[in-house]
């Protein structure tokens, strides 16, 4: 069907790029929209293109008759209390994030007595900027909760600036502007990206930063970071001492010979060990070094005596905590589903390793040490969470918590010196419940059930869980692999209904059951369905589930997703030609590939959010080089061949034998992870090569990859997507 939309006229340049193919030798490929790689902040032509696309999108949406009705319903359904599990720090104060309903950003609240249910504002991100585009990117309390370090991002950029304030100095509406807030220290730690805040006792913290050209990001409060596309290389690890200028920060480690190395530091609860994790990409593989601060040789923090615990990039190792000289480590070494091992580092020249909690047939996704001598282990079995408690003495199983719960455990908070554990849970139809377990009460009663309670729950007035049903099914993919899929419908959803099909399938990231007011409003409003396919490339079934859909096996994930669409149609859930496919980031790639490979015409609309769409150049921009572990390296001839075979940007003009479905591509100017030229080049090519149906782009000017968006921005974005 030919589109009646008049697309903007876009210049097609004569750029040609040369690649090396294993099959064909030197290959020359036209790149007519290469000029769009220059960001809008540096090119008026690109800025005009973005403005024209946004103007086209707005004019189209202005004619959608049910848009305002949906927006009203969604706004009402977003107006419910949302909160995280409380975390009790060493100062005896509990902290958690909470949004009362439609506040732009969740507020960090605090309470000295959780039983009273009274709380105070500790940090209100809504006071950071008038337009609410500034947000908390990261935060961490010092070991004794004396100080609070927090990173502020502008317009959703991955860059952030870290500030420090005393834990007894809240930031609220009465504090005034953050720039002049006297309740914080003058510390301004800039150019931080992809970094943890690794506190060393209450003295200071380790952080990762990159060098930035002088003046490129302007002042810390200005909105200039994240507009560039330069590759992020040569990260450096620094130590910042509280209440000192950044110019005095101490360089801990750098490695110019390995420009892709990234650094992450944590310290054990007792402050004895500093653990340094070194990664070079997004794979589940890292090096691990530790420094013993009890060793007199480590008195100088800038010249630590590192012990190489793991010296090769073969597996993942994450230090949980220690017991004396014994480190407890979460790893996938010889365990695709992960296990707990110990490493005795008392003799650095001969580290003693031992299996502690063996691998099981469920995936061990998270581990923490709680209540003196216990391990809280979160497992995923068939994409549903389970929480087990094990002994820290010998690793033995003690008991399971909340064994009647079905859904996702997305947060477990507990400290070694506190008796209470808090667990945040959710599912496709329930917005959130905080469960509590009291180990002191369990010791007194010897009853798991009596010690377990519902601490807090929430509900959405317009989305009654009883109106919806969720079922898990398993379908067969192209190569015979059984793939799980969750299907959620309203009680009035008929057979052969329109369906929203979501997927991700990459980077070992699992898509566990989640609550989405936007998706459920769509299901209820249009009597439709929501399907989430747990395709390969994630880690729902461990690391092998991930590696079965990376590199030259990436097509397996695409086949899984298309097979999910087949299953919905063949099973009578969805009407043929009525499926909306969607994904973000790597999932945006998935949605775009599904549009081009859908031979059965099951897909009516493809929505690719912040998608990776130029598979031959992704590695050149910002942090894209790190993704080669999942995608492959386009500069290598063998990798080029399979990347070119599915690259949405390059396959689009080659496809002549099918009609593309309608497509919406979304991106943002401050997306410095998947840069916006993936979207701008792709929409220009689609409007030129496949003007049939509707091809539109929605490009935010004050947002990034997704994090940090205000509630209203999310409502407006969801309204545009779902209508």
TrEMBL record:
Hydrolase in keyword set: yes
**What's a Gene Ontology MF term here?**
serine-type endopeptidase activity
Gene3D superfamilies for the chain: alpha/beta hydrolase, Prolyl oligopeptidase, N-terminal domain
Q: Name one Pfam family in it.
A: Peptidase_S9_N
GO cellular component terms, alphabetically, are: cytosol
Alphabetically sorted, this entry's keywords are: Hydrolase, Protease, Serine protease
One of the GO biological process terms = proteolysis
Residue ranges of every copy of the Peptidase S9 prolyl oligopeptidase catalytic domain listed in the record: 530-714
Reactions it catalyzes: Hydrolysis of Pro-|-Xaa >> Ala-|-Xaa in oligopeptides
- Where does the Peptidase S9A N-terminal domain lie? 8-446
Give the EC number(s) under which this enzyme is classified: 3.4.21.-
Keyword Protease tagged: yes
**Lineage top rank: taxon:** Eukaryota
Family, similarity comment: Belongs to the peptidase S9A family.
- PANTHER family assigned: PROLYL ENDOPEPTIDASE
Q: How does it assemble?
A: Monomer.
User: By what name is this protein known?
Assistant: Prolyl endopeptidase
Organism annotation:
Wallemia hederae
Higher taxonomy? Eukaryota, Fungi, Dikarya, Basidiomycota, Wallemiomycotina
